[in-house]
Amino acid sequence: MNLYNKTLLVTGVASGIGAEVARLARFQGARVIGVDRHEAQLSLDGFFQTDLGDPASIDALVERLPARVDALCNIAGVPGTAPLDAVAAVNYLGVRQLSTALLPRLAGGGSIVNVASVLGAQWPLRVEQHKALAGTESYAAGRAWLDANPVQHSDCYQYFKEALIVWSFQQSQAWFRDHGVRLNCVAPGPVFTPILGDFVSMLGPERVARDSQRMTRPALADEVAAVIAFFCSDAARWVNGVNLPVDGGLAATYV
Length: 255
Ligand SMILES: NC(=O)c1ccc[n+]([C@@H]2O[C@H](COP(=O)([O-])OP(=O)(O)OC[C@H]3O[C@@H](n4cnc5c(N)ncnc54)[C@H](O)[C@@H]3O)[C@@H](O)[C@H]2O)c1
Description:
Layout: E1 7-11, H1 16-27, E2 31-36, E3 46-49, H2 55-64, E4 71-74, H3 84-106, E5 111-115, H4 127-134, H5 139-148, H6 156-179, E6 182-188, H7 196-203, H8 205-214, H9 221-232, E7 243-246
Helix pairs in contact: 1-9, 2-3, 3-6, 4-6
């Protein structure tokens, strides 16, 4: 597996998993263009400071990107302790908008990797809602649907990770068939990054204690990055429409 000569667009590049994907991809010979709302302190082949929750900023970003991109890694995200609107915008609506806008530039062998979460594993319980939201065709239409079908703040992180998995499944067949673009998710369990503490506050001490007994430790960000890099590589050329847990076995313990 390698990424030699590929151009990757990596969101959330300034920290955590996104920064590790950028490092690994450059080591493997890729050109990495990073996107984040914060400045990135690492070597990149291009960087755009952008608010990925703002549709106008995403449009402006897309205009400045190269004509050809081989892979889009949608890694930027906020925890459920952020305002509900931000969770909806950054973790779901913005990912859809950027992916859809970039689709023509990825055509013919490209790959999109969306970072979901083990906390999105319960998508089957709300699948009809997620399919209805996935059926909205634009950022604005998605917002309007959410206004009419409000989501609770208490589990909005879970809701929008579930929605991201369902949207990815739904798009993956047509995008692969019609454009040759693969669309997959990875679902990390807890990862040692700056937002791990926010997840602990969000889930509460009981759930955190329960999960800690089900796994040996949280992941390191490079352990998740390696799987994202695999999805971007030609070694994964026949992998499409999957959501792969990268959680040290945590999700399996809930069966
Ligand atoms: N850390 C975990 O335990 C964990 C577990 C499961 C899933 N995830 C997911 O992994 C992804 C990466 O998270 P991380 O752990 O590396 O966290 P992180 O905070 O280290 O990195 C997230 C990055 O996203 C950027 N970002 C946030 N909002 C943005 C916006 N509006 N516009 C542009 N950039 C924005 C931040 O500036 C930051 O650099 C997220 O989608 C998160 O939900 C994390």
